[in-house]
Amino acid sequence: MQKVIIVGASSGIGKELARLYAGAGHFVGITGRRQDLLYLLQLEYPNRFVTECFDVTGTGNIVHLESLIRKLGGLDLLIYNSGFGEAKKDLDWATDKITVDTNVNGFIEISNYAFNYFVRQGHGHLATTSSIASIRGNGMAPAYSASKAFQSAYFEGLHIKTRMMKLPEIHITDIQPGFVDTQMAKGDKKFWVAPPAKAARQIYQALEKKKWRVYITRRWWLADRQTVQMDAGFHIPPDRLASPDQPALSTQPFFWHFPCLFKRQRMAS
Question: What CATH number labels 3-220+234-267?
Fold first, then answer.
């Protein structure tokens, strides 16, 4: 039985992950900005869920985390799932600021605390929901893709640091979803869209296996591979990427499609 905290669990992937962990018999601390949504989720597993209602852009993140840890009686796994993204033709400071406050400042404060908590404890698992958008800049939402690149690079650094510090019992996981059918994904050019429950199941399985980076759904690793090839100055031929369960890719760069990923939505933060 694990003691799990999911930061950003009132909707979408975070909500489905919370259900999976509680259904498997774990104790789960869930957070979000809306107490009513947390309460409704808590009713599903009243003996498995504890809650803290707070906004990760505020000043009380650590106080709320410590309160959750006390309620749970410890901490084995923390998943940072809060996020914000908005697409705009102009470059708007208010949008960039809330994006950075949520996806960078809130993220790093909570991740730093959890990592050091696990170091003192000698074991633990830290995960973040970054994005496949982290691998490329996006003209419609530059702060979003940059903030997700920050998350991914920071977790790669933590992954390396655990080896430098010889901490084999501390695990780091960078979760990179593509399109998931949540409020964050709108538009008419979405492809490979996964239901939140399917995305959560794949994330749950990857976390159980202690993978350090995972693409959700799994076929999105092809977007990362194609980007690497693009940076090298050539494309992978589509017929080389085709398989019975994964159709051949267009050689058009993936991120030409990605403005539809970013509408004004705040994800369970």
Answer: 3.40.50.720
